[in-house]
Amino acid sequence: MLALISFSSVSLPRFGAIFRVLATATVVFTTSSALSQPAPPETLRPDTMAARVAACTACHGAQGRAGTDGYYPRLAGKPQEYLYHQLLNFRDDRRQYRPMSHLLAGLPDDYLREMARYFSEQHVPYPPPMRADVSSATLEAGRVLALQGDAARGLPACASCHGAALGGLMPAIPGLLGLPRDYIGSQIGSWKTGLRRAAAPDCMADIAQKLTPSDIGALAAWLSSQPVVEPYAPEAAGSLELPAQCGSQAQR
């Protein structure tokens, strides 16, 4: 038996050294009886969308359906402009997460927009809701904040921007259901501490400053415990009168 070990790397256009994490090592064992067999098909061809997003799906799951550890959110089916803005924000250091900033450094806008379009067109089943291990009072507090807000504190309901079904609003406001509790809590916390920012005026940062840790925990618990009822999709642009004009809606 002849053992042939070959190492090859996937070279992606414009990615340079960034995506060498996709390098693969293949070990092929051949015998005289196997030499006539056809070579196995390529599993990842350069210059395809599958190759371009391979570094994304390594953490965010196949087709962007979400990672398994609670901190890598679903990308599939989110509004294209929302996904595009997040890629811009990571690349341009408005949103702080070093691995993402490193992967996206130097990538042109059009390239990021194509990636955003790919994930926005993926429609895969949502996971079942998480079981909420909190009190009924905490869940009720989260429900009230999400659907009614708190006018006394100047807090609009999540539904006033993200839609009555919390499915988002075109072109750039995402849905809030089907996300892990840990992810929701960490993102609101990141807005509160300034680790996550959006184009000014940054409405979510303003709202997060008014939320207490208990508020954040209640919202994360209630949102993550809600089932996704199909059809679940962003509402049409202009169908809601937003309580404020946010920079992300005008960002290009």
Automatic annotation (TrEMBL):
GO terms for MF: electron transfer activity; heme binding; iron ion binding
Maturation and modification: Binds 2 heme c groups covalently per subunit.
Keyword Repressor: no
InterPro entries: Cyt_c-like_dom (IPR009056), Cyt_c-like_dom_sf (IPR036909), Cytochrome_c4-like (IPR024167), Cytochrome_c_Oxidase_Subunit (IPR050597)
Residue ranges of domain Cytochrome c in the record: 144-227
Binding residue positions for heme c 2: 158, 161-162, 204
GO CC terms, sorted: periplasmic space
Superkingdom of the source species: Bacteria
Record protein name field: Cytochrome c domain-containing protein
Organism: Achromobacter piechaudii ATCC 43553
